[in-house]
User: Which sequence fits this backbone?
């Protein structure tokens, strides 16, 4: 139901557990991260397919890749920096270079682990993962999209990185099949294109209400897939509005905004404003919304930045 | 003690495989020969005696798996795969050439028979674990063999794999430690002393054997008793000779990576041809 608040981690774990009832090749790896990734039911129902590695991310990725060579579909979920930064070479070589069908899921992404500090933030995961040839990056925007993204990523054969957040998020869209590589026009408009992904989409939709009041008609594009980028959709929109804003809970350098900027760099008259976190060790607050506001990534902050960019 | 004919045949195959290594060095002008030649007897015994593999069907579902955690020993694997018929020996002549199927570290997507893309150290044991875990989960009886080196063991990820292999009871996994004592910078025990290797693995929950890894009898005896202990992964610590078979390079760190000179390569080829003739005669005499 639109507006219903749901926990992304539980939604994810439950979705994979449902899929695993049908697909016996699905196995789950944990680095002391199973229950907190929503896999409580999976552990009860499929103990033989659950591999608890303890706090061991490099080993878990390597073992997952080894299992994948024999046809298994390993899903490994933990706090985002611990499945991206920590075992990066294993992700690059064992999953990427070896082209193995492992599904890596970084939860509590961005600054959603708001008061646990820099070590638990993940503001570079898009950047790290996009440099691995053959990698797919998913960032579903609401709970229903998380469920559909789980189905799509397990059906798809190849390495995938998916990032999900921490606090409850509302259902934003009607359920529809998740097509990897496809973005959606959430709202049409001609003044500016706003491209959003993952947890930011809720705030962009709210920001749009403020922009409407100011007479700004924004074309809003949601990207539940960051890589491969929906290039046609983005280029068409940029050709139309000329002005583009990207919004992500990620460093403004290296992530989705950078990808969009690179994509549009050969288009005459097109400019891109990237919103995100500057290249710093971000600060903390137990109040996630307060932290988003601090970095102008809440609805008000996004609206303010868009207006300033448009000179309004 | 293994059968004499079985041993004689494997010694001959190993010498032929060493000729293949020299053939690649001839093509490329260089190569990581030290570790390839120290571990080559083990690789030969696996492919020519133990492993259930089919060169015509390299992806056969229930095949035994072999991988090099120390990917730079790949000249040994290329040499043995070629001798076993996984690909034409002419491929050996492309070593070092642009876009060769046999790069300086193995690529599973380029060459049949290669199971993992290793090279960065400390990856292979976890990958081997995963292969063995899949076998257990599916109730298959294939085995997974991996080779690591004494110089590779300071990589912490090896120890993640070691403790996990014991936890998951991978008695279908055999890891050889090619204990040749030398790495690029010299004596392994001076660079980073990992001794006692056998005791460390035992403490991590492995069954451990300690053999001479260039002695075919001892290799076969160790392989014939796998799993060494039910429910435990097996580690075979193999004392070996770096650059084994190069009369001028044995036990020299400088031959970890050999930039070959014409003169020494000629000499090595001659000596290896003589060894092959000698071993062929010995084998015939046993028939």
Assistant:
């Amino acid at each position: 139901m639109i507006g219903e608040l749901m926990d992304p981690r539980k939604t994810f774990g439950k979705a994979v557990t449902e899929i695993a009832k049908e697909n016996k090749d699905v196995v789950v790896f944990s680095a002391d991260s199973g229950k907190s990734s929503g896999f409580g039911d999976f552990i009860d129902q499929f103990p033989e397919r659950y591999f608890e590695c303890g706090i061991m991310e490099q080993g878990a990725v390597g073992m997952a890749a080894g299992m994948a060579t024999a046809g298994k579909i390993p899903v490994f979920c933990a706090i985002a920096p611990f499945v991206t930064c920590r075992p990066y070479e294993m992700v690059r070589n064992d999953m990427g270079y070896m082209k193995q069908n492992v599904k890596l899921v970084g939860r509590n992404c961005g600054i959603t682990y708001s008061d646990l500090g820099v070590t638990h933030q993940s503001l570079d995961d898009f950047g790290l993962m996009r440099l691995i040839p053959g990698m797919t990056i998913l960032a579903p925007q609401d709970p229903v999209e998380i469920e559909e993204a789980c189905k799509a990523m397990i059906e798809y054969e190849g390495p995938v990185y998916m990032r999900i957040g921490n606090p409850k998020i509302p259902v934003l869209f009607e359920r529809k099949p998740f097509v990897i590589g496809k973005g959606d026009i959430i709202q049409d408009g001609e003044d500016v294109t706003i491209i959003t992904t993952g947890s930011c989409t809720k705030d962009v939709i709210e920001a749009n209400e403020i922009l409407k009041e100011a007479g700004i008609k924004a074309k809003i594009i949601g990207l539940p897939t960051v890589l491969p980028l929906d290039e046609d959709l983005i280029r068409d929109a940029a050709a139309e509005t000329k002005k583009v804003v990207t919004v992500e809970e990620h460093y403004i350098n290296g992530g989705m905004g950078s990808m969009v900027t690179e994509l549009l760099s050969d288009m005459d008259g097109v400019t891109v404003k990237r919103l995100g976190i500057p290249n710093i060790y971000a600060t903390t607050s137990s109040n996630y919304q307060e932290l988003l506001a601090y970095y102008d990534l809440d609805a008000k902050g996004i609206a303010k930045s868009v207006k300033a960019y448009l000179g309004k | 003690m293994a059968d004499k004919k079985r041993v004689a045949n494997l010694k001959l195959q190993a010498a032929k495989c060493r000729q293949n290594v020299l053939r690649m060095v001839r093509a490329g002008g260089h190569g990581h020969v030290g570790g390839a030649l120290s571990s080559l007897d083990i690789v030969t015994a696996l492919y020519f005696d133990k492993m259930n593999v089919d060169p015509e069907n390299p992806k056969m579902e229930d095949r035994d798996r072999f991988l090099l955690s120390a990917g730079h020993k790949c000249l040994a694997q290329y040499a043995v795969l070629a001798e076993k018929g996984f690909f034409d020996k002419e491929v050996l002549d492309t070593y070092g050439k642009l876009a060769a199927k046999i790069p300086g570290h193995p690529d599973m997507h380029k060459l049949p028979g290669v199971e993992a893309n290793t090279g960065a150290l400390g990856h292979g044991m976890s990958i081997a674990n995963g292969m063995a875990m899949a076998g257990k989960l599916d109730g298959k009886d294939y085995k997974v063999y991996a080779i690591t080196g004494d110089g590779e063991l300071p990589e912490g990820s090896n120890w993640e794999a070691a403790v996990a292999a014991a936890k998951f009871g991978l008695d279908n996994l055999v890891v050889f430690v090619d204990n040749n004592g030398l790495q690029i910078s010299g004596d392994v025990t001076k660079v980073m002393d990992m001794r006692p290797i056998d005791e460390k693995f035992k403490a991590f929950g492995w069954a451990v054997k300690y053999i001479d890894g260039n002695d075919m009898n001892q290799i076969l005896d160790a392989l014939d008793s796998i799993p060494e202990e039910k429910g435990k992964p097996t580690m075979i610590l193999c004392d070996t000779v770096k650059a084994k078979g190069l009369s001028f390079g044995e036990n020299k760190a400088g031959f970890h990576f050999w930039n070959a000179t014409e003169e020494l390569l000629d000499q090595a080829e001659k000596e290896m041809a003589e060894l092959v003739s000698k071993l062929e005669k010995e084998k015939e005499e046993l028939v």
